[in-house]
Amino acid sequence: MKQLGDIVAVFGGLSLLTVGGGMAAFPQMKYETVQVHHWMTTEQMVHFIGVGQVVPGPNMMIVASIGQWAAGPLGALAAVLAFFVPTAVLVFAVGRVWNRLAAWPWRRSIERGLAPVSVGLLTAGTLNLTRSTSTGIVTATAILCVMVLALRTKINPAILVLAFAPFGLLSLIR
């Protein structure tokens, strides 16, 4: 039962870090699940992230996989509810207030102030994931190429990932 309480505490707290997207919570999620609670290894965590990126639906449904891994079906349910319900309630409440403040002069300033916070959290999550997956110069070069091409061209990121997938496979063979 303590395990379920830990899952609710971890994912309930993480749900409030998802400003800008679920990946914003990745560094803390990795820290909590790998280093604090030892529910899985870094490699397993990266595997769950990878699976979450390729299956249909929100990629943060990986919380169900982590909960399942840690405590079975009840762990999966606890993780999903703890991760999505607090944020959903908060967004609903803030959205109602935000709509009422449409003419408020500070509204635009708050929006502009939250944009860099969102980008910073998302960047931190991405960099943390990159450090966890980069296995050498081949992988690092592929990551850099995909990033530059994604920023400088209008090529669909999914096509870039597929095009550079052989580099990832090459790093596994070595």
Describe the model.
The protein is mainly α and 174 residues long. It has a domain at 2-105. It is built from 7 helices and no strands. Helix 1 packs across helix 4 (62-100) and helix 6 packs antiparallel against helix 7. The longest helix has 39 residues, at 62-100. The relative contact order is 0.12. The model has no long low-confidence stretch (mean pLDDT 86).
Secondary structure layout plus pairing:
Layout: H1 2-15, H2 26-36, H3 42-54, H4 62-100, H5 107-133, H6 137-152, H7 157-173
Helix pairs in contact: 1-4, 6-7
Beta-strand segment tally: 0
Order of helices and strands: HHHHHHH
The oligomerization state is: single chain
Low-confidence stretches: none
Backbone shape: flat
Tell me the structural class: mainly alpha
Helical content, roughly? over 70%
What is the first-to-last residue Cα distance? 43 Å
Mean pLDDT metric: 86
Summed up, what is this model?
The protein has 174 residues and is mainly alpha-helical.
List keywords for this structure.
174 residues, 7 helices, mainly alpha, single chain
